[in-house]
Amino acid sequence: MRMRLSNRTASLARLAKLRPVNVGARERWVSIAGGGLALAFGLRRRGWAGGLLSWLGSYLLLRGLSGRCLLYRTLGVTSARANDGGLWGHYTVHVHERIQVRLPREAVYRAWRNLELLPQVMRHLRVVRVDGNRSHWQARMPPGLRARWEAQIVQDTPHARLVWRSTPSSRIENRGEVRFRPSVPDATEIDIDLYYRLPGGMLARLLALPFGSLSARLIRQDLERFQEFLETREAPSEVHDQGLGREEAMPRHG
Question: Which whole number is the average pLDDT over 137-141?
Answer without folding.
Answer: 77
